[in-house]
Amino acid sequence: MATISEIKQKLCMIGDWGVGKTSLIRKFVYNQFDDKYLVTFGTKVSKKRIKYKVDKENIVDMNLIIWDIMGQKEFKRVQLNAYKSANGAFIICDVTRNDTLFNIYTWQSDLYEVTGEIPIVILANKADLRGQEKFSEDDLRKVANDINAPYFFTSAKTGDNVEDAFTNLGLKLIK
């Protein structure tokens, strides 16, 4: 008989403005996409429960509390406050904006300043915009290796790798 454990985990979605944080959450939580740009002011919190099969004997029922945190750099104090008590984070960049890739270093540094080392996953979002990429997978791999994080090319529009990315981070939180 399987043992079911219940846990609650706070995840932060961080990255520059306009990289698709809100759209990724909407896709993951509600399976919806809207291509209208919505500015996040402060933070917005969403929830989703997921069951993770750890092995043949154990299942973890995880209640994900997902914090969508504004990406405008002039609100750093609000961002740092929102990181408190985070168990894990996604750092998101936009494949059509090269600067968003290199800003990952700053996002990770600011996050760790508040949380210490927690599991993070990098999402290179808007992967559906073929031909408009401003950096290569090699560029992304270098940044990911530098900060010791896995990465996924995602699309909030098509849903590509969104579920896989959340599963990956969820499993990291269990371990």
Q: Which stretches are poorly predicted, pLDDT < 50 over at least 5 residues?
A: none
Shape: globular
- One letter per element, helices H and strands E, the order comes to EHEEHEHHEHEH
Largest sheet: 6 strands, mixed
Structural class, from helix and strand content? Answer: alpha/beta
- The overall average pLDDT, rounded, is 92
- Which bin fits the share of residues in helices? 25-40%
- Largest beta sheet: what is the strand line-up? 2-3-1-4-5-6
Distance between the termini: 21 Å
Quaternary structure: single chain
The number of helical elements comes to 6
Fraction in beta strands:
25-35%
Give the beta-strand count. Answer: 6
* Rg of Cα set: 16 Å
Structure explained in plain terms:
With 175 residues, the chain is α/β, with parallel strands linked by helices. The chain has helices spanning 21-30, 76-83, 98-102, 104-115, 137-146, 162-174; strands at 3-15, 43-53, 58-69, 88-94, 120-125, 151-153. Strands 2-3-1-4-5-6 form a six-stranded mixed sheet, sandwiched between helices. β5 (120-125), α5 (137-146) and β6 (151-153) form a beta-alpha-beta unit. The longest helix has 13 residues, at 162-174. It starts with a strand and ends with a helix. The mean pLDDT is 92.
